[in-house]
Amino acid sequence: MGRGAPSEVQRNPTGEQVTAVEPLYTVYLEESMDSARDKAERMGAEDFAGLASRSRTVMTRFSNNSVTVTGFNDLSSIDLYLGYKKRRVTSSLREVDEKAVLVEVERMIDSAKKSEPAETYSPLPSGAVEYAIPPKSYDPDVAELDEEGIDIVESVIESSAKAGAKRTSGTFTTTLRKLLLVTSGGREGEFRSSKVELNVRAFTTKEASGSAGVASCTLGDLDYEGAGRTAGEMAVQARNPKVVAPGKYDVLLSRSIAGNLLNLIAAFTSSFYVESGISPLAGKLGEKILSDRITLHDDPTVPGNPGAVPFDAEGEPTQKTTMVDKGVLKTYLHNGATARKFGVESTGHAGWIVPAPRSVIVDPGDIPRDRAVEALATGVYFTNTWYTRFQNYRTGEFSTRPRDAAFLIKNGEIVQSLKGARISDSLLRMFSDVRSLTADSRWVTGWGFRVPCHLPEFILKDVNITSGYK
Amino acid sequence: MTNSVVWYLDEELALTVIDQALMLGADYVEARFHEKKAETIALKNGELEPIIRHMEKGVATRILVDGAMGLATTNLVTEASVLEAVEKAAKLAKAASRLMDEKIEFSPVETYDVEYTAVEKRPWVNTDLDEKIGLLRDIDKGLEDGSELKIGFPSRLLELSHVWEKKLLVNSTGTSILSAIPRTGAHYLLTGATDGKTIQRMGQIGGAVGWEIMEDKDLEGVIASDAKAMERMLLKGTSPPTEEVDVVVAPEVSGIIVHEAIGHPSEADRILGREAAQAGESYMEPDSLGRRIGSEATFVSDDPTIPGSSGYYLYDDEGVKAGKRVLVEEGGIKSFLHNRETAAKLNVESNGSARAMSYSVEPIVRMANTYFEAGDHAFSELLEDVHLGVYIKSFMEWNIDDKRVNQRYTGLESYMIRDGELAEPVRNPMIETTTEELLGKLDARGNDLRFWAATCGKGDPMQGAPVWAGGPHLRFRGIRLGSR
User: Min CA distance, A77 vs chain B (Å)?
Assistant: First the structure.
């Protein structure tokens, strides 16, 4: 398979030169995968796909300006897909020794025999493919940071405190990952990636908080001090909030809240959700579903995309996919089976069961970021949200509870910190009436959404706000 | 001792971990060997989806060094990799210890050496796949075009699932607890439609039991009843009243209210700010015990030891013996949910609320089975003196702020109450209020305690914990409802 373990020359304590295998390569998932494929084929499987992963993650959680726990997770996994007489079975294994994997292949074949043939069966793609490695996706410096990770967390807390925060909480996570693909269609791939994420929340009082979420493939690109500062500044501005008056407002959505909501719209383009009734986009292909100011992609070719991978779970190369072009729904996201059912080509978004986006990218607009509040003129500025629930996924009727700083804006200026707001509207309607977008886009993730988003900030018109406070 | 559990590891490796950690300077160490096997079978719009299987086995080592907590997890269960994890946990904890205002301590705990399990009367693994698929097909058939229903069901997602979870917890206080818990359940999302209008229902059953739950809870009957109710709401539902009315909620709605408005804010890690950047904080403060948050009719408990429940366990993941916790009594806060860390901070003993959902995560404070205690009113008695009101039987949309004050519950199956009797269907009545306002209006509880299965999210990485939430029918006086 040509999957050699990268190594580097180091000196051992006695000064001799030794070759050290990178930590990600100390477990030989390749052998288990190859054996699984051979066994599946011998037992009569017509299709086999295996995705193996080794990741080493260090997460530091902190609250009240102190570290609460630092955790290291060494995860080796093998996910398997079998097609046997058009019967389909998947298995995700967090036990990767060859013997256990081969036993699981037998059990999968046994399950398949007792199962039913799929009405729409799609053979896996075949023929060798050269995968394009997403640019700037691996930084070896994102190693297992011990002291350095604590230093970064300390910087975040200090930046937040300097901006005025009394207490700061958050999570700082670094991940190195190796991904391997083998399919019966002759597709083989390997991809190394790194990811750094920071989620920070700062408080000045119990009711006044600010937040920021940033993500990157490289340590150098992660503005962690900036995130701490932003959260702290917001927490200061959010002091002395008053209950929002219910009504319709034009709103400015920060990247965090926009990321929460656009993660949902992007997920709703999955053909699985469309078919399951968990999407307001059913039957809307080719229709204008959002404002013509919104063009939404998933694009692994964007350098430093923290969600990018070169291949999907069926071995299709990933590519730039425009789901919404100037407000028009262009495509659902597909794997081979859903594509066959819909009579189209796979978009390279398998998930053997649920096709899914790996990044959410919205083209920026033309309002300078520092003029966004001025551009809103009158309305409410929301900086974060959580707890989004739908009354009806088909209509998109939903509500979400903004959290952290929110501000009443009048004449282009912040005049009052707000609390108690609930956005209660239709998701598609909200993003159909977009006044403008800011000109700058950045990567953002958050506690409530893990598909990284590259977004500007949004000014929306006439959004319905309610409150539980009387 | 209860039923013996076959385990893939003897305790020797666990004890080696303990010794190694103590040698590295740990004041406390625990090793949790944690295994899960899961299977999901789903029918989507009448078509069988791929069968989903999942297996994981791994070890979590948690260690206190210099007052800091280190966690290292691996699913490479060899002595070398597990000991590497121990060293890593110690190293991380030492590194973190300089960035701590206050050293972490654990409350004292008794030591135990026990094994326990929950029993599947009809083990999932011994139940034929044919029977499982057959059940899904029977349910789906009742929803297809041509059934007696007067609305269509263009989208139907039906899932059956089973998780088998084994844990061996060994710690440096001498505790060893071996447990095996099966959980079996079903989840469904139905979309009803007619004349361009749609209605959706998401439902779930579950418990620490086997395949027998499908019959015991009558999954087929429950979904058929839901479909009929959806038809009624879609075809005949009218707008809710705009004036203040009395509201009676069914146990499903009692369950979501108690889970969100009392259970979560009772979690001591939230109260102390440890979950601030994730699932949030609480309106309760460390000194809130005794504070009035509801009427005298408000009685709330959480009990992990209910046999067959989704949140069932007898010892938590820190080795603390579990028992019923009274959270609210006569409207006053009686206790919080604690793990050993939060208990030590507040100078109490842990009440055994620490749970970890996988080998790869830390145990954190969780609810198990949270409920309003039953009262003494029959359902008819709750209705009889309501002149004008709304009965909310089930819900769809809900949310609450992250301090657990400002909340919304939007009814799905709902009816007017007129002169003490249930009357016409009502569409989307919405309770949108604050915790103290809502609980302050609770004036009577039914005698019919029931539970619903749910999955509760918290932590980072996110941990979805199986829970039950429930209560009896509840009556609230003078609520102004909103509507979609």
Answer: 9
Separation in Å, CA A322 to CA A299, A313, A350, A431: 8, 20, 16, 17
Hey, where are the domains in chain B?
Answer: 11-236, 245-483
Contact between chains at A72 and B88 (C-beta distance less than 8 A): yes
B243 lies within 8 A of chain A by CB: no
Amino acid of residue B98: R
Backbone angles phi, psi at A133, to 5 degrees: -75, 125
Residues of chain A neighbouring B155 (CB-CB closer than 8 A): 275-277, 282, 394
Structure tokens at A278: 């968990």
Contact A398 B68 (CB under 8 A): no
pLDDT of residue A22: 67
Q: How far is CA A161 from CA A64, A65, A156, B199, in A?
A: 11, 9, 9, 48
A232 touches chain B (CB under 8 A): no
Q: In CATH, which superfamily holds the domain spanning B11-236? A: PmbA/TldD superfamily (3.30.2290.10)
**pLDDT over 90 at B303, yes or no:** yes
Indicate if ipTM > 0.85: yes
A-proximal residues of B, 260-279, CB under 8 Å: 272-279
pTM score: 0.96
A26 interfaces chain B, CB cutoff of 8 Å: no
- CB-based contacts of A37, cutoff 8 Å, min separation 6: A48, A50, A182, A183, A184
Classify residue A384 as left (phi > 0), alpha (psi -120 to 50) or beta.
beta
Q: From B45, which residue of chain A is nearest by alpha-carbon distance?
A: A276
**In degrees rounded to 5, what are phi and psi of residue B253?**
-75, -40
**Helix (H, G, I), strand (E, B), or coil: what is residue B360?**
coil
Q: At B4, is the pLDDT very low, low, confident or very high (cuts 50, 70, 90)?
A: very low
* Single-letter residue type at B318: E
Query: Which residues, including other chains, have CB under 8 Å from residue A435's CB and lie 6 or more apart?
Result: A250, A375, A459, A460, A461
> To probe the interface with B, which of A95, A103, A385 has the most B CB atoms within 10 Å?
A95
Query: Which of these CATH numbers, 3.20.20.80, 3.40.50.300, 3.30.2290.10, 2.160.20.10, describes A7-234?
Result: 3.30.2290.10
> DSSP alpha helices (H): ranges in A238-359?
255-268, 271-276, 336-342
Residue spans of the domains in chain A: they are 7-234, 241-466
B75 DSSP assignment: S
DSSP bridge pairs for A379: A409
Query: Measured between CB atoms, does A389 come within 8 Å of chain B?
Result: yes
Test B76 with A60 for CB contact under 8 angstroms: no
Of A402, A391, A414, A405, nearest to A466 by C-alpha is A402
Residue numbers in B near A395 (CB within 8 A) = 198
The reply to whether B176 touches chain A by the CB within 8 Å rule is: no
pLDDT digits over A54-63, tens only?
A: 999 999 999 9
The verdict on B165 touching A (C-beta cutoff 8 Å) is no
Which residues in chain B are closer than 8 Å to A399, comparing Cβ atoms?
Answer: 397, 399, 408
Cβ–Cβ of A171/B91 closer than 8 Å? Answer: no
Using CA atoms, how far apart are residues B445 and A384, in angstroms rounded to an integer?
37
Return the residue of B nearest to A387 by Cα.
Answer: B399
Q: What is the share, in percent, of chain B residues with pLDDT greater than 90?
A: 92
Q: Which residues pair with B75 in a beta bridge?
A: none
- Please report residues of A whose CB lies closer than 8 A to that of B199: 392
* Length of chain B as a residue count: 484
